[in-house]
Each structure stands twice: as C-alpha cells, then as structure tokens.
Amino acid sequence: MKTKVYDLSKTLKKYSNVWLALDPTTMRVVAAGKKTESVLSDAKRIGVSHPVLTRAPKDYGAYILSIS
Amino acid sequence: MNFKYRKFPLDSKNSSNLNKKFALRPVIQIDFDSKNGGFGYLVLIDSGADYCVFHSEIGERLGLDIRKGKELTFYGTSGEAQKAYFHTIEFKVGGIIHHAEVAFSYEMKKLAYGILGQDGFFDKWNIKFELNKENIEIKEIIHRK
Q1: I need a surface site. Which of B53, B87, B95, B128 has the fewest CB within 10 A?
Q2: How far is CA B28 from CA A14, B67, B101, in A?
Q3: Closest chain B residue to A10 measured between Cα atoms?
Q4: Interface of B with A in 79-108 (CB under 8 A)
Q5: Strands A52-56, B39-45: parallel, antiparallel or unpaired by DSSP?
Q6: What is the Cα–Cα distance from A11 to A32, expressed in whole angstroms?
Q7: pLDDT of A6
C-alpha cells in the first residue's frame, strides 16, 4: 500500500495552545480554537465531513515520553 | 498496513542539532465514527507507554462521562503523578475496527497527540518501526483458537 508522507512542520508552527482540525486528505488546517466541539463544527460547516483533530502545544519542544 | 512517519515542528534551539528543522515521529491517524460523520485524531505510537492515553476532550466528543471510568495514576519522565480515567472505546486503525481500554486525561494539554501504548495497542498489533524508511508497518495479531 503506497502511503503519503505528511510534512506538518511548517503548517502547525503558526499555531500555539489550540485545537486544530485538519483536512484528512491534505492535512491542511481548516479550523482552530480552544474547544474541540467548536473546531469540529467549524470544519464540518465548511464541508470537511471527517476532520482530523490534533493539538498545537504551547511550545514545540522535543518529546521523550514514557508512561507507566 | 503501512503508515509514514510524520514531520512536526521543532524548535531548533531546543535540539541537539541547530540545523534540525523538524521532528519525525511515528504518529498515525485513528478514526472515530459517529452519526454526523465522525472525526480523526492523531496519536503517537509509544512503546514506552504502559497504556493508551488520550486527551479528555476526545472522550467528551465521544459522549463519555470521563470521571466515571476507573482511575489511573500515571507518571511521565518528570515523575509527576497525573490522573486519567479508563473507558473501553472503539476506533479504526487504517479502516480496521479496534477495541481498547483507553485512559482519558485532563492533564495532556502540553501534548499534541494521544498515545498508543502497550496495553490496548501493542498487545493487539505487531509494530515495526523503520525510521530510515520513514515507515511504520502495523499488522494485527490474529489469535487462533
């Protein structure tokens, strides 16, 4: 199955501490806001029927995760 | 099925390499169905995580009463205790329906994605990380009777 590489490094850098709705095909930001409910409804209102949610953190630091 | 690593913003001043402009991470899209079309959510495949942990806001969108779930106290690398609440949910991975116990946390605002950990994900899928190819191969574990 051929898959596409999504480069979100420039797109997401413009946002901080908000929820984002992305277009599932292009991965472009179609809505942004503090609440997932409004972000999803804004995306659906402009015709994106299955938006993809992610958060823009306050800072883009390095991730070293481990949860136990 | 195969997924590609995704490139995310990185503060080059906060990196071992000042020329590094992005971070490559094993982040995939999972999908939730609902009557109004559902939505996707980006999640990090994290072999160092014992459990799957998602933002509480995602649970709220799924109609869960988050705090009614079984409480989990978990620790990240800072060693600080955090709370989350387990619920059994359904989502799709590459179009395949997946059921898992997922803990929902109100203390994940600093993280961009949900986390797929050992219980609930690695116990059901074999995952091969190929950073040099920017590829993640995921195969469902079939339990034969």
Answers
A1: B95
A2: 21, 27, 18
A3: B9
A4: none
A5: parallel
A6: 12
A7: 86
